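User: Okay, second chain of the day. Same drill as before: sequence in, structure tokens out.
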Amino acid sequence: MSYHTGSSRSSGPAPAGPTPIREPLRTVVKEPESEGVELTKGITIIAGDLTNISKDPVYVIKKTSAKARSVVEEIPVKSVNTIKALNDYDSYIFNKTRAFTNTETGIVTYGSTLENFIYAEGGAFQLKVNGDTGTQYNIVVHDVTNTKWYDFDLESFSNGFSEKIGVVNNDKLYLTIPPVSVETEYNVYFKPLGSTNYDVLLPTQSKPWVINQLKNVVTTFKFQNSDGFIPDQTTTISNTPNISLTRGSINSGETTINITVKPLRSKLSLNDLKTVDPSVSFDEITYDSEEALSVSSVKLTASVDSTGTVGTISGTLTLNKTTSRDSDILFRPTSFFKIT
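Assistant: Same drill. Structure tokens below.
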């Protein structure tokens, strides 16, 4: 329900005193509909005229947070002018240079260890340079022992520097290693060439890959130097390095030994222990070798000739395996003899 309030007009004279304040025309709406109020156009409404009018509804949407997970992958870049590998077709001829740190000084040096080798008779080997097709490379094979270089066109070593400038394709390189009588070392490396990039794992002149060619190894059985004794006769055997002597061998690694020693002065005889038992035990054998020797059987006996001038150890000894380099199997004279 609505009603109007205000002052009425009079045609008579105005009363004395201050002019009364006219209030604006008001429209009061009581208990309007909850859905809203309709007002007539032209009616002035001031603050407080409308009461109990509800606000328009505000719709709230619950905030949702989302986390995106993704892996950013680099866009592949086409490899250009890169040499990636040097393949020896599983012939295992290379010993690769690596870093060695001195535990006391901390100084780092570079070198290789003898993990692979070729035999004294040498042989022909195939190599393959892999990389981006058409990329040029420069490869060198240097005989360090004899100061010679390999000519890939002639397939031989000669005096004077030689190198091979090639191109990555399906062709192979042929490396012929000649027979030798002494241990020989070869360095293989790539040299910088134009815009060619070499993989960091490939050999360089300062960090080459090494080919070790081992000669046949000699194993010597002899008496050690000792005060009052002069080592005399020795026994030696020669074999291919680092091979088993007990598999497929005619003598199964058994070696016949006969070594002698003489007194520097006077005469000699068996010592007290060997007078009782002249046999030689494992503990009475020592080795002069960078590698451990494998001995499976010892059937040796110590003796002195009738003149007392020659002491002898004779019999057989069985080696299971040869070493990579020359080695000595030693016997201490005082373990068997005494000067009389």
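The radius of gyration is 51 Å.

User: Thanks, on to the next one.
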